[in-house]
Design goal:
By secondary structure, the chain is α/β, with parallel strands linked by helices. 54% of the residues lie in helices and 19% in strands. It has four domains: 127 residues, Beta-Lactamase (2-Layer Sandwich), CATH 3.30.450; 79 residues, no CATH class; 151 residues, Alpha-Beta Plaits, CATH 3.30.70; 235 residues, EAL domain (TIM Barrel, Alpha-Beta Barrel). It binds ligand C2E and calcium ion (2 copies). One calcium ion binds next to strand 17.
Length: 666
Amino acid sequence: MLLNVQKFIILLIAVLLSILYIVFMYYHLQQQDSKARVILKDLSNNLSETSYTLSKVITSKKNIIVARAILDRVVSNNDFIQSALIIDDAEVLLYTDPHYDKHVEKSLFNQESENFYAMLMDSPAIEGEIRFYEGGELNVLRLLFVLNHDEILNYFSEDRNTFLLYFGLYPILLLLIVLVVIRKYLSAPLEKLRQFAYYQNEVPRPFKLQELEAIRYSMVQTFQRLENEKKELYAMARTDSLSGLANRNSLNEYLERLIADSKRENKEFALLFLDLDHFKTVNDSLGHNIGDELLKNIALMIDEVIRSSDFVARIGGDEFVVVLHKYSSLLELTNIIERIQQQLSKELIIQTNPVHISSSIGIAFFPKDGDNIVSLMQHADIAMYEAKQKGRARYHFFTEELNKRVQETILLDKSMREALVNNEYQLFYQPKIDIKSGDIIGAEALIRWIDPKQGIIAPDLFIPLAEDNGFIIELGEWVVNEAVHQYSLWKMAGLKNFSVAINISTKQLLNIDFAHDFIAILEQNDLSSSDIDIEITEYMFLEQNQNNADILKVLHDNGVKISLDDFGTGYSSLSYLKKFPIDYLKIDKSFMDDYATQEGAIFIETIVKMGQTLNMKVIAEGVETHEQLQYLDSVGCDYYQGYYFSKPLSVEAFEKEFIRGLVNAV
Ligand code: C2E
Ligand code: CA
Ligand code: CA
């Protein structure tokens, strides 16, 4: 059994106290004995004095009564004497207390006791002799002092009480105080140290006792060191020692977390499997040192290109895995991938050797291509081999269909930009007609891409991508300039009461200078602000910000008319209509297609009424039949546009069909 400190100290104190008790008990007994001796001495003095006096006083046995007064005095003067007796042989002649009228035969004084105290306590009485002559004959009587043991005990017990107080109560009090102090300064700190040693959760505060404090301090230091070592080990187990990048363990941990997060948030991410092309050749021809050096450089370069939210690990010789999860489109993703490949293809000088290296990347998506680590890695690996097969230094998606789409997008992105340089864009114009009068009031400019090989490419095929990759800003500028240029030509030819509407994408309105630039262009070309209208779509409200509203307000205040395109398909609400300065509502073609159904009709009529209430003109789009037109007329719609009147036409065709008539009509 193990003793604890507290018990140990209690035991120690108990032993010490016992020794003290023994010492003091011995002393106490000594003290008691010497007191008993003094009392005995005093009593025997008293006895001999009294016997002497009585020897003088007593003259005959018959008048023994004379001794009575003397004995009474002696008894009353000494508390320890219970009574005094005078005895002749065994017969009591005189007594001071009637209890002792019995015969007292033998000596009552116990001389054999081992000490004075015992003698005092064991002897019922002490005795002396009274000698006197009666008629010349010597008489010897016995004088007995019967001891008052109650009184004697009383006397000694006073002493004992004091003794008990000093040697009983005080030590116990002292013991308690010592215990409290020990608990506070020793036991509790030790317990804290024990807990700290076990759990290391809470660092104990400095202790008062120097030794304990030294232990505590060294424990804290040691645990700190161990913790640091643990962290280092942890980091070492998760980093690739050559490149300093994360290793496979760390990648697995990261993917586990990312997969859980992505599942929960219903998100996708891309896993890139990157393998250097012909790394073995570099290793074999230039040596492993250079190979290692190259890998370090590659690791640094990848790390530089990717963003802080991306993750990169080296999982084998020349194999790296990059995980990308923050990208808004495939295009953005491929941009990052291309950046990585471009960076890696730069010439590196390693120990004076110029090294050219390229990389092949395979891409798999969570959850489309795999919803667990193993299948994602496998599929990205397969895609990487595909990239190698196709000639290396390229990337490949796991699915062929996606791969094709991405390649097409990238091609489109490239050729779309080249088309602007090569002047392959044209604006077509589709007339807008006043339903009541049948007059042409203007035209909508619609962009066309005339590709030398493919012919006319519809805007639906490239406008969404241009909006995605930002090219719409450049293209939009071209549209404004082109429309303004065309309009000023027509104006010079004498065209009046005619406006051209151009489509403006939401991205263009993000530029704060848009309104200012737009008005400046009109002024430079001597156009009035009512000559060119702009069409915006409801989707703008989705990304609405104060900027959009401000730009529209400036344009509107300057007299530019604003149409809300594709009305009814998006997120229009009355509050937007009131907040934004809208002049025209364009009913989307899909509603015109449904005009004959009850729902379609209700919708069209509602928009028309709403337009009238809000002081807006309503234009119906996509009118293809005479019936549709008649219906629009019947519900009071203002204008229309559609194949029924004319498809969008090239400038030449439009001029031939309409402008001449319009100019001549003026
Ligand atoms: P949008 O602004 O709603 O243009 C109306 C579309 O309906 C045009 O398609 C037009 O040719 C077509 N359309 C007009 N009447 C009829 C009809 O009776 N029947 C049918 N089936 N279609 C009709 P388009 O020219 O292919 O333009 C498509 C979209 O591309 C436009 O929709 C517009 O959002 C966008 N877009 C066109 N040009 C530009 C431009 O210069 N800048 C911007 N940002 N977007 C443009
Ligand atoms: Ca439009
Ligand atoms: Ca439209």
